[in-house]
Design goal:
205 residues; 5 helices; 11 strands; ten-stranded antiparallel beta sheet; alpha+beta; homodimer
Chain lengths: 205, 205
Amino acid sequence: MPKRGHYDRTTVHAIIDEALVCHVAFAVNGEPTVIPTLHARRGEELLLHGARTSRLLRHVAEGNPVSVAMTLIDGIVLARSIFHHSVNYRSVVVHGTGRLLESDEEKLSALEAVAEHIARGRWADTRPPSRKELKATSVVSIPIELAAAKIRTGPPMDEDEDYALPFWAGVLPLSLQPGKAIPDPRLGRGIEVPAYLRRYRRVGS
Amino acid sequence: MPKRGHYDRTTVHAIIDEALVCHVAFAVNGEPTVIPTLHARRGEELLLHGARTSRLLRHVAEGNPVSVAMTLIDGIVLARSIFHHSVNYRSVVVHGTGRLLESDEEKLSALEAVAEHIARGRWADTRPPSRKELKATSVVSIPIELAAAKIRTGPPMDEDEDYALPFWAGVLPLSLQPGKAIPDPRLGRGIEVPAYLRRYRRVGS
């Protein structure tokens, strides 16, 4: 199978950065829950933020383990046999326990990472959090230490005897593409779409 | 906040069908794990398949609960304040316990749903599983009963006093788009890209 584990930092970081959102799993009394949420990376830390009242963030702050997946879909893999159909993807799963960021300084720096994760260049082009907003926001940091990347690329792998079958086989690439920016109906006159949104790409951010 | 819970079946089914992959959370001895995997829907059942040796599938087959998220990203929401930045998305989370499909007939029908989930029209255009392949494959079915959909759409919501700020605000749409089909290097001559791949869309499948 053309699947491999990739554990080098550069690969892991690139997948985390390209994925806009992640899926966080946590367990309460053995009951698992999964939640999609926005993340960001700051060096070797994975940052999750949300309302101070968030059940997930309080759970992490209490020292409970989480598992966080970042998944990028690159295409569907169409083999001659249904058995060998697959998906081309890149994913990272991070396991670990986190800590709650306590100081305003650390929280601000984390929210800067979040803004830059959403769109590189955005932090300088938005109103930073007020003291009240900062107080209403929790941020947890999870070390990117126990991280496993998985990548599948390339064409389908069929059984030898199936290559003669008359079915089309190959890959249909899929990727998350930006459309045309939609201005807020209440946008002030003369405010143009910034360059970092006109040439927006998740890759290589 | 322009977030709402949507619980009607049509909305839940449409999100499950449009999402190519899901994220499954399960817990072993209190340790949560999340795994991205391909899913399919058959009526009110969510189907997961994989190798018979799959840790996740055996866990489900033993009657343990899982939480499964299907998430569609529709865009980034850029507010004048960093605090009100968000993501437009549609997601469904299904909680439940599953059952292992036992008969070859039920497994075949489930794998047909998987093929059609990957690309509508594919099942009739591929070699069905052999007895041996069927034996190597496990399929579990989870009822789509405890399902919660969440949807965020529309422009950012800023604080009243922030609307006068000189920052661009609005939505940058994002969507999973197909590229040009890449034929398998070993594709037989004269086999054209089928119509269901030329006009491939996840929506309304």
